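ok here's Signal peptidase I:
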Amino acid sequence: MSSKETLFEYGRSIFWASVVSLLLITFVVQAFYIPSGSMRPTLEVRDRILVNKFIYRFKDPERFDIIVFKYPVDPSRKFIKRVIGVGGDKIQIIKGQVYVNDRPLKEDYILTKGYSNYGPVIVPEGNYFVLGDNRNNSEDSRIWGFVPRENIIGQAFLIFWPLNRIRLLNW
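and the structure:
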């Protein structure tokens, strides 16, 4: 094989690898970096996660799903939080205890119990109420409101970096 043919083969391989990568990132799975501690202890600062971008084409997000979404105030920014309320749910927080439809929510994943009061509010249909697991250091639906369905990018499902923190999420 001549050097020109070899160069052509390399170029073609790079092209197809780029196309496949672009399709995977756009429609299937995408890696994200965790820049803040708002989801501690579930996600730590500098964790790298994979997000399933196609799952919500087949089902709606559910309570306790960890989702990545476009920040409603500035859609160019991506946030990650836990779904607490879905359309029609009544959400209220009294002395840090979250109530969904007047029932206390059991949350064994939060860092510390919050100290705030909030609501009651009714989650509009097609929207989600999300909270960080580190309630006292999280900017979430208590501050900027609901997440519209169309803002949701996908469901976080795997911490893949650092190696000592590899594990599945939402299982």
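+1. The longest strand covers residues 152-161.
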